[in-house]
Amino acid sequence: MTWCILRALRVSQRRIKWHQMRHVFNETGQLEREFDRDVSRKLEDYWKPRLKEQHAKRCITPATDKEKYYVLSMFPYPSGQLHMGHVRVYTISDVMARFHRLRGKQVIHPMGWDAFGLPAENAAIERGLDPKLWTTTNIASMKQQLDDLFCSFDWESEFATCHPSYYKWTQFIFLKMYEAGLVYQKEGQVNWDPVDKTVLADEQIDEAGRSWRSGAIAEKRFLRQWYIQTTAYTKDLIEGLDEVDTSLWKDIVRIQKDWLGKCEGCRLNFDIRKGEEKLDEPLIVFTHNPELVYGISHITLSPSHRLNTPENYRNPQDGEKKRFVLNLQAINPFSGKTIPIVVSRTARFDEYSDAHLAIPDISEPDGLVAAELDIPVPSVLTSDGQQETLVNSAQFSGLNRSDALEEITAHARKKRFGGHMCSSKLNDWLISRQRYWGTPIPLIKCPKCKNVPVPIEDLPVELPTLPGTTEKGTSPLAQVSDWYNIKCPKCGGPATRETDTMDTFLDSSWYFFRYLDPQNDAAPFSKDKADHFMPVDLYIGGKEHAVLHLFFARFFSHFLHNSGHVSTREPFINLLTQGMVLGESYSVDGRYISKSNVDFTGSVLCAWCIVGLGESYSVDGRYISKSHVDFTGPAPVEKSTGQKVLVQWEKMSKSKYNGVDPQEIIKEYGVDATRLCILSNVAPKSDRKWTYEVFKGVMAWQRRVWDTVNSFIQGRSQNIPLQCDPQKFKEYEDTIYNFHNECLVRITEQLSQQFMINAAISRLHRHVKNFKKVPVDVLAHSPQAELALADLIIMLSPMAPAFASELWTAMKSQASGRTHHKWDLGVLDQSWPLADLDFPLSLDCCINEDVKFHLKIPRKELEQLSEADAIATITSSKQFQSFLDRAPEPTGFTIDRGCNGVVTFSSTTVQRNKSKTFTKKKKKLRKEKDSTIEQ
């Protein structure tokens, strides 16, 4: 027994000593025999500063003959700690940036910080800190973590939205919108967050009426707030969706169109008078029939409308009536005539409106109400039986309704009292926030001049330092008297600054332009640079931002285009919405209780909820950590209570005990293994169920790659003789040539066209398996094997840069130099490998999005085809003859260097074939459909 213990101790000591002696190739000139975690840590420690040094050398210069490629990942809120969602999106972003650099493109891959907002302010309040200090500290921490993840960001473009040099230009764009008549202030019913104590836009309230940030049920209040007229761009934004590639945006187009709604009417602004006094703000009413504006008899309001107040009643008893006329009058913006305003408890209003333009010519109920209240009824329509024509409509008389719609709305837009076609459900963007940590609104309140914009030359209006910590529920900026009190720039009299700050979505709606010119102190960005680098080629971020952020960013881009700041109006070409990283959670099953056991005294039912059609009451399931679950029985139960535990995959959260700390993972398994793990098996758009089991496969594959390179090095360095005859050797060469070139084509397509990184990694797995079939002596002597193995390492480098850099350094020690690789440079400075010019690629015939057949053409010939030549090649082929009777019309030809080509056709008679037979045929043509490839 003692001998066994001593022997085990000596073996353990030898292993420890061997691990301690491990070195990288650059230090010893030898590749370690085995790849494990210790080797991984050692080589990553060596390559980390060298990778960072390479990243620092890159910069943006518009004067370049390289093709540009703008890779943009949604910039983070600086919470101070990366979570696994960050790791996933920024690893995907980094892979795509590295891939396109290898393809010889000038890649823009910037990073910054969405630094203003409620989370930072709330965290600072809880800790008694200045939000600026809290944010700055977090930025430094997260930047270091991104560097540790080997992300190759252009840090020279870095900025934080909370810095005056950035939000100066947010204020500048805001004032340009103000000049264009898109910014206005009104009193209206708003959503009030009772926890964060600030107003939220309708877009920041979910379907259950809860705040997007705090989760509290929003209260309804009437407040005077600032708005941006985003509805003015509804039609433009809908039309802009026709400019994007719908095959890549897919359901995002539907989501955006659903959010925007159908342009079935417009809003018109009516000035309101009470006697001789004009009220401060107009009454804004949506109508489906703006062309009949001269036929308005009265305006009907719902009882909940802000104007329905006792001080606006003609008689004190009016509030008890079903219908009554207010002591107010609206002014028709076209005719200048007064219009009565009626409150009705019986009228039906549109789902999204509390005001209605009564036009008796097209509404019998409106005519009956007008007769009841003795309101004159104008007539503006006449018909000859075929079409309706306007009468009594000033210069628009004589027009048919469709022509009148265009001219009347155009007149309203010109005079700036509405007329922008939009849907009734889409409201303008409420941007006022009663909080401190945000961009100050650059407007001044003067008793004489009303609202006055801050002169452009006085920007930025800097956020002052508060005398103490901020408080919720008020606009804290009013506390700073030296900042708050100011002279009116228009009349010179005493005035005050606006104390509300902007919704932080304004800051994040144009940041991708500023990345291109971050040091510009004369303009938000140079138009020349924007025209050169925009639009963004690939935008990567969470699908949860595919509504709000994408809507606001597109709106800003359209405005900047219309105002002459940039030539393209749609900001993003390809949109990649990555799925969430899910963790396994454990919750104690809920149970129903009687109403007598529920406490209704608070504002929230705490751990209770109301579900179903009738009122039922159930205790929410408590989340517990995995260590508190007993798995020994037939079903998991809580150890302390024996209650059944529900196991499910959910978004990672500290409160659900299913979060994972990326720093701990990297420390345990290494950066490259973590990157490969987050990229493998699952398509970027799909949710990733996080499990440590994946690491076993990743580490095993890294060992196989390592062993293959080691075999090549050992075979070359030891001059192993070739064992097979020339004919057999040629067969091996041909086999390697074919699987190598097929791999190059597939991976290039998967990364450049489909962004299927998981499919590319799966193909690399297959590539390594093919090497295992090649004997060591052939591997050592084969020029094709050397080429294929070198290309394998290059293709691996975007996913695992340190691992690939180490392998490349080792391999070039035995490279023959007969390949086209630049062996004096590192792997990240190579060119992306492409298929041999004589290797046959596919020219596909695609009709109505279905690949019907393909032709094999050598790469050197395929890439020389013009669109006309490609179409002629397809249409003159025998396979195309069967489609001639259905008259397919060519719609385009696409080809990317090193990839297969596609000629697309459209036909009204060729249907998409979804039969099993055709599916098998299609699979045979493509062998693998990238969206289904998994390891």
Write the topology of this structure.
Layout: H1 2-20, H2 25-28, H3 37-56, E1 68-73, H4 84-102, E2 106-108, H5 118-127, H6 131-148, H7 164-179, E3 183-193, E4 198-200, E5 219-228, H8 234-240, H9 246-249, H10 251-260, E6 265-274, E7 277-278, E8 283-287, E9 298-301, E10 323-331, E11 338-344, E12 355-358, H11 364-372, E13 381-383, E14 388-390, H12 401-415, E15 418-422, E16 429-430, E17 432-433, E18 443-446, E19 450-453, H13 481-484, E20 485-487, E21 494-497, E22 501-502, H14 511-514, H15 527-533, E23 536-542, H16 548-562, E24 572-578, E25 581-588, E26 591-593, E27 608-611, E28 616-619, E29 623-624, E30 629-630, E31 637-638, E32 645-651, H17 662-669, H18 671-679, E33 688-689, H19 693-717, H20 726-752, H21 757-772, H22 776-781, H23 783-796, H24 801-812, E34 840-847, E35 850-858, H25 859-862, H26 867-875, E36 889-895, E37 901-906, H27 916-926
Parallel strand pairs: 1-2, 1-23, 9-11, 23-24, 25-33, 34-37
Antiparallel strand pairs: 3-4, 3-5, 5-16, 6-7, 6-8, 6-10, 6-15, 9-12, 10-11, 13-14, 17-22, 18-19, 18-21, 20-21, 25-29, 25-32, 26-28, 27-28, 30-31, 34-35, 36-37
Helix pairs in contact: 3-24, 17-18, 18-19, 19-21, 20-21, 20-23, 21-23, 23-24
List keywords for this structure.
disordered N terminus, 4-stranded parallel beta sheet, single chain, 935 residues, alpha+beta, disordered C terminus, 8-stranded mixed beta sheet
